[in-house]
Design brief:
Blueprint lengths: L4 H14 L5 H21 L2 H17 L10 H22 L5 H11 L11 H19 L3 H12 L4 H8 L3 H18 L5
Amino acid sequence: METTEADARDRADMERLIAGHDAALNDLMERHATTVFHFLCRMVGSEDDANDLAQETFVRVFRSCKSFRVNEKFSSWLFTIAANLARNHFRWRARHPTLSLDAENAETEQTLGSTLPASSPAPNDEALAAERAAAVRLAVSKLPEDLREAVVLCEWEERSVAEAAIVLETTPKAVESRLYRARGILRERLKLWL
């Protein structure tokens, strides 16, 4: 696996953290907090929950730093922690429902932001693009958890299939299969928009 400059900085900061230099966590958070937050927003559909889970992700990095293998890619390890926390959040929420589906869908649509590029379109085009983006976010949020994780990691977070497999603790072939199934479901659910 090719090591980039960012990977080398992450590895050096983890080595410092393992050696007891707690300030190294600040450097890791500075580089990765926004990415983790956006990933968790897309996974759980709530900025408040995503913020809490992102903070907990870095608490776990601090507490578990000695279990990090320095030959691993830090971002894969970090996203594994975040994905596991998101799964735990879904399990907890399934046992303790508090929102109606309508309120939850409205919150999801409000917090995720548009994924479509803007290039000064006409107001009508902007409204159509916003509706399309909301429809995509809603359709992705209704995917089964394993399919949604694959889509969020590979499509929105632009992680490779191999890295997504590490995060999801499965094989690259399984990730490809999940993406194939998710795309089929999304094509069917979004056929009015395609």
